[in-house]
Amino acid sequence: xxxxxxxxxxxxxxxxxPFQRSVQSRVSQFQRSVSIAWNPLGMNAxxxxxxxxxxxxxxxxxxxTTETSAKVIDGKSVAKQIKDEIAxxxxxxxDGTGIVPGLAVILVGSRKxxxxxxxxxxxxxxAVGIKSYExxxxxxxxxxxxxxxxxxxxxxPSVHGILVQLPLPRHMNEEKILNAVSIEKxxxxxxxxxxxxxxxxxxxxxxxxxxxxxxxELLHRYGVEIKGKRAVVIGRxxxxxxxAALLLQKANATISMVHxxxxxxxxxxxxxxxxxxxxxxxxxxxxxxxxxxxVVIDVGINPIDDAESPRGYRLVGDVCYExxxxxxxxxxxxxxxxxxxxxxxxxSNTLSSAKRIHNFK
Amino acid sequence: xxxxxxxxxxxxxxxxxPFQRSVQSRVSQFQRSVSIAWNPLGMNAxxxxxxxxxxxxxxxxxxxTTETSAKVIDGKSVAKQIKDEIAxxxxxxxDGTGIVPGLAVILVGSRKxxxxxxxxxxxxxxAVGIKSYExxxxxxxxxxxxxxxxxxxxxxPSVHGILVQLPLPRHMNEEKILNAVSIEKxxxxxxxxxxxxxxxxxxxxxxxxxxxxxxxELLHRYGVEIKGKRAVVIGRxxxxxxxAALLLQKANATISMVHxxxxxxxxxxxxxxxxxxxxxxxxxxxxxxxxxxxVVIDVGINPIDDAESPRGYRLVGDVCYExxxxxxxxxxxxxxxxxxxxxxxxxSNTLSSAKRIHNFK
Lengths: 361, 361
Hints:
Rossmann fold, globular, 13 helices
């Protein structure tokens, strides 16, 4: 699928930064309400005005076949709404039972990105009233050290969810360590028993993996009908693509799974009413891959070089946003789409776990 | 999908009976070897001569667009070959360790069809050297009675596989009973932990469910390439359709799943290089559903009325054989296709289990 990358990456410098999205959202809302055809280059000009980092010279002209624009599926705002709902439920539970949900995170080593994720999870927990527990272990810990902490959290009645931050150091057996997490506290939903229940009709998993659950929640909250629709999932990882396909199938979509061995990903994807892309390849999904009116959920978070950015890189999705937003009826931006939903779903799973363990309805 | 039934059923009276298949096989072998176009009506005449039940008046003329014929995937003969291989392995194991694999079957009630299945399984075990164990419980047994027998077989070191014959009486909780079977002896492969491992990359189930495993074995033994091919699975039951899709996907096919909510099953199926149909609807899949050259595995075993048969009915597949065999490159007949493979795979799973438990390579 690498050949599909071509030059969308260069156009991707026009990608929206978070604070720009509200501008675009207002503009496109206006344009839909007055039924005026929308020129994306015009939109780029608006973006340019709003963004000190944006460089118009980096934007190649895009040949447009349609001049409509997709609705932006605003994950950030939906995630906020969900977190507010969770905070309310946690208060109600605390008032009713005196119990507060607890989430334990085990971090091994000192990878900067992992530390950032863990810090963000902790902050998100605090914001909704979930109590955080942490175990920080040095890089050279043994498997037994990690298993000991998992066992402690498994036994601790104030902990309702346990996360092992991945990746683990290379000398550890990830499968063995993840399997040690009690199935009742596996808020990541990665345990094969959960995945099996997700796949089976008439069975329900205790937890649905957070990112695909977030994708489904976005579809639901934006009123996207799933039953009877064609859905294509691009990528088949254990943590996103595969469970996303199982969820869509459970919701009675007709699913197809596209992956690196698929010979004609473009042709198959163009049949879909709903696309979830979790390939981890920047700008893989082009405008020509999309059936007009399809709904596009972009799970990819791919760093690409960007001399204009203070960090030297920026994050883009799997989907060539500029092209696809002229064909799709709705699309998630990156960042600000699926990303914020993942953490909201982790909080949601932790709350559900506490409710289930304490039989609180 | 019901509308697709139309009148193929009436033509299906030309379906092969087991003893006819050898005739057809020889004929089509001949026709392929001398590259003569094959007229299926001519074949029907040959069938007619070989079958006292066949009535030519029931066969409507079929409009043919191509006049080639699919290779018949002979499940009966492949199953025999596999059973011979298993018998050889069991002898080797017995010689090496003194241990013989054991399969326990639990039958509750006195359904005629279940009794027949259990008797056939027992006979198949005896034929390859697997020791059979049985528990026959009356219809009005309690769940606890059944669970007690499962526990006994779980603990019995001479039992390596446990089957609970389905359906269970209505007053029993099937999920609870199936979950009681030790995962190490779940030769049916229906435990959600097995299904989860089947779905996940980098994980392997202890046992693959017998019928989909049989489908894959047929594809392998007939040299059908799977990697990179489009595969469509029709039907999504926990015991066939869903695990078949997961197996095809693990073998790097690009899978789509068609089911009762699918709006255009014909259009999607026509894209497939490989089709596994497990819908349980007689003659659902017509010739027009098939891409020329596709390989078709028909899991359906559907009884339809047949005044000509001494039993008053006969068994047909999901696939309208007469139409599809003129379009596909290879096809399984019903009966004699997937059916015999299911029991061969059960024996194979029991042997694998005994080898694993006793660490015999």
